[in-house]
Amino acid sequence: MPGIDDVARLAGVSTATVSRALSGNGPVSDRTRARVVQAASQLGYVVSSDASSLASGRTRNIGAVVPHLSRWFFTSVIEGAERVLLGQGYDLTLYNLSGDGGERRRVFDHHLLRNRVDAVFTVSLELAEEEVGRLLALGKPVVGVGGPLPGVSTLTIDDLAVARLATEHLISLGHRRIAHIGGSQEFDLDFHIPTSRRLGYEQALRDAGLPVDEQLHRASDFTLPGGYDAAKQMLGSPHERPTAIFAASDEMAIGAILAARDLGLSVPRDVSIIGIDDHPLADFFGLSTVAQHPGRQGEQAAALLLDALQAARTSPGRARAEPLSHTAPADLIVRSSTAVHP
Amino acid sequence: MPGIDDVARLAGVSTATVSRALSGNGPVSDRTRARVVQAASQLGYVVSSDASSLASGRTRNIGAVVPHLSRWFFTSVIEGAERVLLGQGYDLTLYNLSGDGGERRRVFDHHLLRNRVDAVFTVSLELAEEEVGRLLALGKPVVGVGGPLPGVSTLTIDDLAVARLATEHLISLGHRRIAHIGGSQEFDLDFHIPTSRRLGYEQALRDAGLPVDEQLHRASDFTLPGGYDAAKQMLGSPHERPTAIFAASDEMAIGAILAARDLGLSVPRDVSIIGIDDHPLADFFGLSTVAQHPGRQGEQAAALLLDALQAARTSPGRARAEPLSHTAPADLIVRSSTAVHP
DNA sequence: GTGAAAGCGCTAACAT
DNA sequence: ATGTTAGCGCTTTCAC
């Protein structure tokens, strides 16, 4: 492994100049830079990140804290973030909190503290106040994606508005008995999201002068089987069957579609179904939905963090920026699972 | 941020002793260790990973190189690996090669070279010879999970045997017209896996004295919609319809189940279907399958790497270990999608 | 625009 | 078992 002084020797300059030429920090003449770059690539020189980090205080690494890896939303956010990070020469270190809970303590007490990352983003995480405190105590840029996080800059769709939109779509099609399959705290690390979506659903009903019927709400777990079970209960009832279902996630909505089929109901003739997400399978099932774009959210989160790091370099004097709430776009996609109420 | 000498001062010992006490490398009396640990926790001291890495040459970080994040298998492997790594104080840095291909070059030419990781595992990756070369040139432990990688230690199920097992299950139920939905090179970064599975299928047929019929093979893309399309073509044929389908992945098998339903065929009465994976949705769909356990594969991969690192510390003289092929266990799980041929 | 040199915060000989 | 000290390979003042 060639070192910086090998490059310096070959290029006939000092190590300081090599560092400046390769990092872009500090003035170097074009001729010199060219020589250095040439020498570096000739030797196959790549800077040692440890040495560079130690000397500069910057790691060029971003931490991503997620509750699971097994859900489409989380992984899409990470993929999006990594797209922009890799492009900027940053690495992404993953802290997955699934598991017994020992993970959780270790990550917050140890891993995040040892200066391995310049900034952190979390995905759909419901953090204890103490954990938020630890995160902020790092003194590093932090962004929370998908769900509000008190005291932290966040990036998320407006869950309430999105739920309203989905519900209003059904109302506008003439539906009056509209059921909701949501989430519940017991199933999820994050309970703000299901709550906001439920509130949006109820608001839409009230604004349309429709009653909010407890019988038409089921709490589930955001999975396909969960949506199936919930829908089957509601659709199986011989009386007062809903004519439309709004599920808080596409996976639950797909479960609902399968439940309807198993009950001999046709979608959308007998029942309209809409979800939230625009999951990859939504198209296959003809599912109407409100798309959120987790990949883009990840990209945007990464961009926010890189900007903050840049700002910190430019004006180190500035106090830490105020936490900001960024709203990610979401759009209604109408497919074949929703239609007018006959 | 307190440093090691703050701890040393408070504990009344030298920095070397602090280092030894906290890392466990080198002898420290129990009394001293207790004092140091107490001082460290009192100050909230956490070692700076950069400084430690630079001085020791060890990063306590493992690199994971994956082709996508959006597939259940990959994320499960990573989750498994991270379970054991976090427990050992290791971080996991993720290199996701999805994207335009620029990623791919950058990762191999730059990110992996800058000494940020002690070891690397790859998941289901079909690497160019040059990329394998680069990986090995790191001089670090490398393990390939899910798919053979020439010159690299690997951990994978025996795809051929697994495919045979699935096919033999169908044969033992009296099926004689057994179709196969596989993968194809054009859809996948990795083409060994679909090929091995197809060969296993054909072997099982031949060994049972059954003909291998080109009409009964469809190449697809390992997704649910892909499996649906492939199955619909084969099952829709009015003549010579297969009585059983072996799909190379559960997602394709689930697509096949849905295709059968849409054609008015009952599973398993009219057609038996089996997959490979034991995907989380397999149970919901009653899908018979051959389970591989990607989480455990990830755990085992991590353990292999940690062992190799340990071995390298113990006997640094030893030449790099020979590449070893480890076979991960896989077991037939019979659910309700397969039954005797009437 | 470039070079000299002082660290960055640890670890690992080596000495005691 | 513990302390002293010389780096690890860079970046960044500070001179020039």
The radius of gyration computed from the alpha-carbon positions of chain A, rounded to a whole number of angstroms, is 25 Å
Number of domains as seen in the coordinates of chain A: 3
Shape of chain A: elongated
Helix content of chain A: 40-55%
Query: What is the level-2 CATH architecture name of the largest domain in chain A?
Result: 3-Layer(aba) Sandwich
By CATH, the topology of the largest domain in chain A is Rossmann fold
Low-confidence segments of chain A, given as residue ranges, are: none
Tell me what portion of residues of chain A adopts beta-strand conformation.
15-25%
Helix and strand element order of chain A: HHHHEHEHEHEEHEHEHEHEEHEE
Main sheet of chain A, how many strands, which sense, barrel? Answer: 6 strands, parallel
How far apart are the first and last residues' alpha carbons of chain A, in Å? 73 Å
Task: Tell me the CATH superfamily of the largest domain in chain A.
Answer: Response regulator
Pfam families (chains A, B): LacI, Peripla_BP_3
GO molecular function, one term (chains A, B): DNA-binding transcription factor activity
Keywords (chains A, B): DNA-binding, Transcription, Transcription regulation
Protein name (chains A, B): DNA-binding LacI/PurR family transcriptional regulator
